Amino acid sequence: MITIERKIHLRPTKHGRKQIRKEPSPLEDVKPGRVPRVARLMALAIRFERLLHEGVVADQPALARLAHVSQPRITQIMNLLHLAPDIQEELLLLPRVRSGRDPIHEKMLRPVAAEVDWGRQRELWRAIVRERVVTQPSECNPAAEATDSGVEAGETRDAGESGDRLLATTPQRR
Predict the structure, then answer these.
(1) Is 58 among the domain residues?
(2) In what ranges is there compositional bias, type Basic and acidic residues (predicted)?
(3) pLDDT, tens only, 12-47
(4) Domains in the chain: how many in total?
């Protein structure tokens, strides 16, 4: 008698049947923690803008009906698009939250998005990051090395206009 041992990966199909796969699904490689809500809202704002631009949705009230939210909420989400591009990028790349509440909320960004001057927005954003972000050492967050690179606790290091931006914050003791 011959015994063959092999790992198989089953995936449910639309009709409830199981399909055999050679490799595990990519969902098994998901990093721990969750994407911050403000990062998801920023991505949603970008998606909504594309839907409006392509004519898939006629206007924001139609978008609100489609998304099952109020018109003022759509406006709040769409106002994230008024942020400077580098701030939008940083929002999208915020580190995952492993436990507890998100350190940065959409409501905190409203006064920043209301500011027309991107330079002033960056100042307000850095103040929020200094005050609110308590980092967790991870592969996507260089804060663990920040103290070795001469950045003091709670300081923000900015590489300048080269597009090579890095916000490194370390926990502040109170």
Answers:
(1) yes
(2) 154-164
(3) 777 878 887 777 666 656 678 999 999 999 999 999
(4) 1
